Amino acid sequence: MQLLSLLLLCLSALQPALAALDVSGVPACGLQCILTSTVNSDCAVTNTTCICTNAVLQATITECVTASCSIRDALSTKKYSYESCGLEGEDRTALIRILAFVFGALGLVAFVLRCLARFLGPHDWGHDDTVMCFAMLLEIAFAVLSIPISENGLGLDMWFVPHDQITEILKFYFIDELVYITALAMTKISMLFFYLKVFPKKSFRIVTYALIVINLVYAITYDLLLIFQCNPLEGAWRTWDGEFEAQCISINGLGWSAAAINIALDLAVIVLPLPELYRLSLSLRKRLQIMAMFAVGFFITVVSIVRLYSLIRFGTTSNVTQDYVEVGYWSTIEVPVGIICACMPAVRSLFSLALPKLFGTTRATINSTFGSYAPGSSGNKLGPDSKNKISVKQEWTVLSEGPNDPIHERHARKDSDVELLNVGVAISGDDVEAPTRKMTLSKHGGAWRGMSVDEAEEYQRDAYKSPAFTRERELR
C-alpha cells in the first residue's frame, strides 16, 4: 500500500488532473509496471490514446506484469487496461448453450425414433439399444452442463471473469470431460453390438468383440486418469492461480492422447462393416443408401480431428475461459452426432414402414411373385381381378454367403454362370404377357440350364433362413 500511495502522489505532482482517475481496482504491481513502462516510452503518462495504441509499450507492460504479478493480479491489471482503453472482450457464452441444446435435441430426436422403430417395427430390443440408453443419458447431462459452465463465464475473456468463477468453470470442465469420454465410448459400443446382430461371420464377430473390449478399456482408463490427474483431487480445478499446491500430470498430454486414440477407434468402428455391406445381395439403390448411412460416421472423425487441433492450440493458452470455447463446442457437436449416426439404421427401418417405395426392400416375396399367377375361378390365369391394369415387378438374386452357407452347394454362382434380368409384367384385359424374371443360367453337362419356378420357390424358402437374409432384414 505504501508503494501505491507513493505512485499516486507522484502522478498527482506530474498532472493534477490525474488525481481524478479511479485506480482503486489496479494491483500495486500492475500499476507500477504501467507507470515505469510508460515513463520510458514516447507516451505521456496521461495520454491514454497513445498508451493504448502503442503496441511496443503494451508488450512491455504485459511482460512486466507477467514477471512481477501473481496470476490473479495480472488478470486484474489486464481488466483495468481493457476498461481504460475502452476495449470490449468477446462474449460467446450464448453460443455454448445454443450449440449444446440444438445438437442435443437432434440427438434426442434420433434416439426417440430409434425407440419407436423397436416398438413398432419387426426388430426386437437388443443390447445395442440398452447401451444407447446410457449414451443418451450422458448426452443429456452433457447438454445440461452447458448452462452452469456458461453462466459462470465460459465464453468471456478470462480477465472479465471473477476469480472464484474461474474455479467453478474448471470444476464443471472436470465433470464435462468424464461425461464426454464415457459417452463417446458408449456410442461406439452400441454400434458394435448392432454389428453383432447383423453380421454372423465368425471372424467379423471376433474383431467386433475385441473392439468392444478396447472401447471399454479406453473409457475406464481415461476416466481414472482424469479423476486422479491431481493429488489431491481438487487440484484439477484449483491450481490455475498457482496458490493451491498439488501434484498433477499434464492435462494437455492427457487430452491429446485421448483424442488421438478416439479418432483411431472411430475409424475402426466405421470402416469395419463396409466390406460386408458392399457384399450384400441388394439392389444398387439400397446398397448405396446403407453405405451412405454408415459413411456419415466419417463426419464424426472429422469433428474429432478438428477438436484435437483445438486442444493443441488450447495447450498454450493464457485465456482459458475464452480459448476453451472451440474445444467445448466441437465436443458438444461430436457426442450427439455420434448418437445420430448410431441410430440411423433403426431410423431407416422406421422410415421404410412409412415410405416403403423409397426405403423398403426391392426383393419380391414368394406370395407376390408366384401367387399372382394362380388360376382364378373364372378360368383367367390371374383370377377375376385381372381386368384391372396392374404392373408386377419381381427380382431374383442369388444369396450366397460362401462355402459355409447351407444353400451354397446347390445355388452358388460359378464363374461360368450367366444372369438374365427382365423386370416387369404388363397386364391389360385378357391379354397377359409371360412373366419375366431374373434367372441364373448355369452350365450342366455342356448345356445351359435355368432355375425353374419350383426350384426358385424352394430356394427362397431356404434363403429366408440363411445368414445373408437375416443380415439384410436387420438393415431394412
Give a written overview of the molecule.
The chain has helices at residues 2-14, 28-39, 48-53, 55-68, 71-84, 93-120, 127-144, 146-151, 163-198, 202-227, 235-238, 251-271, 274-278, 284-295, 297-314, 320-354, 356-359, 366-370, 408-411, 453-464, 467-475, and strands at 230-231, 247-248, 390-392, 418-420, 425-428, 431-432, 439-444, 447-449. With 476 residues, it is mainly alpha-helical. It has 21 helices and 8 strands. The protein has 3 domains: 2-84; 93-359, Rhopdopsin 7-helix transmembrane proteins (Up-down Bundle), CATH 1.20.1070; 366-475, no CATH class. The strands form 3 sheets. It has a 3-stranded antiparallel sheet, with no helix packed on it. α10 runs antiparallel to α12 (251-271) and α15 runs antiparallel to α16 (320-354).
Summary?
By secondary structure, the protein is mainly alpha-helical. It has 21 helices and eight strands. It has helices at residues 2-14, 28-39, 48-53, 55-68, 71-84, 93-120, 127-144, 146-151, 163-198, 202-227, 235-238, 251-271, 274-278, 284-295, 297-314, 320-354, 356-359, 366-370, 408-411, 453-464, 467-475, and strands spanning 230-231, 247-248, 390-392, 418-420, 425-428, 431-432, 439-444, 447-449.
